[in-house]
Amino acid sequence: MATTSDIRNGLCIKYNNDIYKIVEFLHVKPGKGPAFVRTKLKSVTSGKVIDNTFPAGRKIDDVRVETHKFQYLYSEGETYHFMNEQDYSQIQLQKSALDVPELMKEGEVVTIIINSEDSMPLSVEMPASVILEVTHTEPGVKGNTATNATKPATVETGASVNVPLFINEGDKIKVETTKGTYQERIKE
């Protein structure tokens, strides 16, 4: 048993007969009244995100988990195939268990959280950022770079990312996986 002071991003808890992963949290101490913790929880079974508020000091039922590095192999429709880097065993997960499947390219190494009690995979954690190649974007207009203007670009995984005007097709860019936003251009 844990309490609300143990809440952190990525913690898996049992709540309402389901297992949820904490995506965001905020400890709030109002001037009047008791403190509480505002959380955003993502169901590891359905992928549904809910907002919930826990009173400070409330006991929460945490789930014992272990993490393993897996390499993303390929996808077939809604099913994604991964290989364990230690023993080369393969597992399949549904698209709903993934946070940002559109930013995952083949060969990417991800961390899969597995429930220690029944060895069921709970969720997939992407690296903080991924490097992807731009496959399609409109050319930037010369002289239009004074403002912080962006344009849509399609990357090699098929995802659309807003990039600055100076990015061209063939450029490699670093994309933050939590928000799906452009970070920087990678020089080769």
Question: What is the CATH architecture term of the largest domain?
Answer: Roll
**Could you describe the largest sheet, including whether it forms a barrel?**
6 strands, antiparallel
CATH fold category name of the largest domain: SH3 type barrels
* Gyration radius, rounded: 20 Å
Query: Which structural class best describes the helix and strand composition?
Result: mainly beta
- N- to C-terminal separation? 49 Å
Strands, total number: 16
Shape: flat
Poorly predicted spans: none
What proportion of the residues is helical, as a percent range? under 10%
- Which strand order does the major sheet show? 1-6-2-3-4-5
Strand content: over 45%
* Average of pLDDT: 84
Tally of individual domains? 3
Domain Translation elongation factor P/YeiP central: 67-122
Protein name: Elongation factor P
Pathway: Protein biosynthesis; polypeptide chain elongation
InterPro entries: Elong-fact-P_C, NA-bd_OB-fold, Rib_uL2_dom2, Transl_elong_fac_P/YeiP, Transl_elong_KOW-like, Transl_elong_P/YeiP_cen, Transl_elong_P/YeiP_CS, Transl_elongation_fac_P
